[in-house]
Amino acid sequence: MDTTISRPERVIIIGLDNDQPDYQYSMTELTELAEANQMEVVDRLDQALDRPNAATYFGSGKVEELAQLVAALEVPTVIANDELSPSQLQNLTKATGVRVIDRTALILEIFAKRAQSKEAKIQVQIAQLQYRLPRLQTASDQRLDQQTGSGGGGGFTNRGAGETKLEMNHRVIAKQISHLRAELKEIEKSEQTKRAQRDKAAIPTAALVGYTNAGKSTIMNHLVERYGVDADKQVFEKDMLFATLDTSVRQLTLPDQKRFLLSDTVGFVSKLPHHLVQAFKSTLTEAAQADLLIQVIDYSDPHYEQMIKTTETTLQQIGVENIPMIYVFNKADRTEIEFPTMEGDDRLIISAKDGASLDLLVEAIKHHLFSDYETVDLLIPFADGQVVSYLNEHATILNTEYVSEGTKLQVELAPKDLPRVEKYRVM
Ligand SMILES: Nc1nc2c(ncn2[C@@H]2O[C@H](COP(=O)(O)OP(=O)(O)OP(=O)(O)O)[C@@H](O)[C@H]2O)c(=O)[nH]1
Ligand SMILES: [Mg+2]
Questions:
Q1: What is the bridge-based pairing of β-strands 205-209 and 292-298?
Q2: DSSP assignment of 206-241, as one string?
Q3: Residue closest to 353 by CA, chosen among 222, 244, 254
């Protein structure tokens, strides 16, 4: 037996019940986020308030109740459902005597633990430093208080030194941020080059988007297994929040030679921290440049409707709009609902682990990505054999016939390929 596994950190979560229908869901989500960060929620405290108290988040009576609960349960950490201002953070820490963090800091901690690639690590670091910057004041004030309290008398010199230290910390962090930004730019440059090459190839692109843990990477892996140029190029999938932090793009070639690129990217959660969205913008632009969005939804989760709303809000936040979308209600094998089924041409109920479901999904993708493809009849002289080879690779050949003048083909091809074959067209 492994006895080295550390026990989860026990925490209390706190939230402001603004009487909105999403409130209970956001507290459930906060519990799941805490669990994703190896924490165990042992209790929660809610206060019915429209707006947080500017100084202490909760009202004073509730803060007192929280302090007593923290002492009684002996928890080392309290997590607030909303982003706390520097002074709220400081006052709550003082009142409870334990570590207080907010939803934003919690999400940043999870991202920091999950980040694998250099790009993701830098992106998270930038977001963390930016979150810390306005909160520096608080930390140094605390040190100041301690110094003044114990030393006594030397207030003036201590304060002077403290201020200098704060300024210095500010400068150091600001410098770190700009240094990391420069490094990120270098990485992004090479990413952009890759993207530019793809644009030139003009292969249509579909992007998997949606709430974290919905099954995006699982769908990606199954499609890569079937149609990938390199079937070994699997991405990481796991039953946990934010399994994927990096964008992966794979080229798929369907049996009829139609090709497209599929991208898998970071999943969403409600109130995704602003700094994190900014830092991950380059990763997320993959979705912004897609011809088709495939929103994956965990249909077995009772909160799936809120998750759709969250995804839509986040897409707006990163400036993704006016891209056609298909809705994939996944994990139907965990529900009583029949699958695979298709409603209209943009709503599917599937299970990522079922072959017939994947066939249906591919049909739906094809319908959207290749609807502007045209079927044409061509007569290509034998001397232009290279055109036939090109079409064999890039188009769907529906019919081939050899006549004395050359090769007669009926092909279905992309609009961009039409000029290339214009002179061979027969009516
Ligand atoms: N039963 C069932 N489980 C599924 C299905 N699709 C995915 N899963 C499981 O759900 C978990 C999450 O899947 P992922 O593919 O990692 O989810 P994701 O959307 O990529 O999640 P993030 O990367 O965190 O955004 C994994 O344990 C999968 O095996 C499905 O159709 N049915
Ligand atoms: Mg994933």
A1: parallel
A2: EEEE-BTTSSHHHHHHHHHHHHBSSTT------SST
A3: 222
Burial class (CB in 10 A: 0-12, 13-18, 19+), 343: exposed
Ligand 1 centroid – CA 427 distance (Å):
50
In whole angstroms, how far apart are CA 310 and each of 29, 56, 147, 305, 319? 12, 28, 45, 9, 14
d(CA 232, CA 310) in angstroms, rounded, equals 33
CA-to-CA dists, residue 180 to 11, 125, 273, 282, 381, angstroms: 32, 8, 19, 14, 58
Pocket flag, ligand 1, residue 114 (CB < 6 Å): no
Stretch 71-100: mean pLDDT? 96
Binding residues for GTP: 210-217, 242-246, 264-267, 330-333, 351-353
Q: Is 352 close to ligand 1, i.e. is its CB under 6 Å away?
A: yes
Are residues 80 and 102 in contact, defined by beta-carbon separation less than 8 angstroms?
Answer: yes
113, amino acid identity: K
**Which residues pair with residue 12 across a beta bridge?**
43, 78
| Full DSSP string of 31-48 | HHHHHHTTEEEEEEEEEE
Q: Ligand 1: does its nearest atom lie under 6 Å from the Cβ of 353?
A: yes
pLDDT in tens, 116-151: 888 889 999 999 999 998 887 655 454 444 444 444
Give tens-digit pLDDT for 150-197.
Answer: 444 444 445 555 567 788 888 999 999 999 999 999 988 877 777 666
Span 240-247, mean pLDDT?
A: 84
Give the mean pLDDT of the chain. Answer: 88
Inter-residue contact 234 to 248 (CB < 8 Å): no
Neighbours of 330 (CB within 10 A): 29
Residue 333, ligand 1, Cβ within 6 A? yes
Give residue-wise pLDDT tens across range 293-341.
Answer: 999 999 999 999 999 999 999 999 888 889 999 999 999 999 999 999 9
Give the burial class of 238: count Cβ atoms within 10 A of its Cβ; 0-12 exposed, 13-18 middle, 19 or more buried: exposed
Q: Which residue bears the tokens 């890039």?
A: 394
Asked if 287 contacts 268 with a C-beta cutoff of 8 angstroms, the reply is: no
